[in-house]
Design goal:
single chain, 10 helices, mainly alpha
């Protein structure tokens, strides 16, 4: 196990990690700090590294991104979420090892996979946030179903993104609620306020917001990374330690 982890941190991986960190910070700063959108898009670099260099490399990239982001831009509220970013890297690396960035499911199986994961999200939201959260989860599930049916992207890429978003939301909620009182100074604050207005407590509101923002955010981020990977030549991808995650015959 240790030898495998060590083999992931090749020279190419060590060169990719700083680039990925810059991508995370720049895109995240624009989306959250400037545009104030209710999403993040600060994990694209983390996901890319996790797919090409393994779970630990992705996790380290995510955690360092949040820490450096907080220091450079004087945004200490991003630093505690290094825990979430670490988890995103680990989970993404697992999906990549399972071949989710290269496997194509038959249409029926792909739609069923989306329905199962979407159903899980809907149930969690309904239990936590009631009809409002469940309604938003249903909307996301329908969107992903339609795009999957149109073969805009592989079903497993969408499923991996939504599942990663659920994990990120669960990890982030206690941090947002108990460290920051649910107020982050970003576009997601509007969703927290919306859930609180329905009678949810701060933890429920933070989790409800996360279960709206994170699955959609990671779904989009996974698609962006999938597009990036498709644009790279197999010969270049083969140089990375986890090339078999994306090249079918690697």
């Amino acid at each position: 196990m240790l030898s495998k982890i060590k083999s992931d941190f090749t020279t190419l991986t060590l060169a990719l990690i700083p680039v990925a960190i810059v991508i995370n910070i720049v895109v995240g700063q624009i989306v959250q700090g400037v545009l104030k959108l209710p999403v993040y898009l600060d994990s694209i670099g983390t996901i890319l590294v996790a797919v090409l260099a393994g779970p630990l490399a992705g996790a380290v990239t995510g955690a360092l991104s949040n820490i450096i982001w907080g220091i450079v831009f004087n945004m200490p509220n991003t630093i505690p979420f290094a825990i979430t970013a670490f988890a995103i890297g680990l989970v993404t690396g697992l999906w990549a090892i399972l071949g989710w960035f290269k496997r194509e499911l038959p249409m029926a199986q792909g739609l069923l996979a989306v329905l199962i994961v979407g159903g899980l999200l809907i149930v969690i939201q309904f239990v936590n946030s009631g009809p409002l959260g469940a309604g938003l989860a249903i909307a996301l599930t329908v969107l992903v179903l339609v795009l999957t049916a149109l073969r805009v992207f592989p079903a497993l890429v969408a499923v991996g993104g939504v599942l990663t978003g659920i994990v990120a939301a669960i990890v982030s909620a206690p941090i947002a609620a108990f460290v920051f009182g649910g107020v982050m100074g970003t576009g997601t604050d509007l969703l927290v306020a919306l859930f609180e207005a329905t009678g949810a407590n701060i933890l429920q509101a933070s989790l409800g917001q996360g279960l709206v923002s994170d699955p959609f955010d990671k779904f989009v981020s996974f698609i962006v990374v999938w597009i990036i990977l498709r644009g790279l030549s197999p010969r270049y991808l083969a140089r990375f330690p986890r090339a078999s995650n994306v090249i079918k015959d690697a």
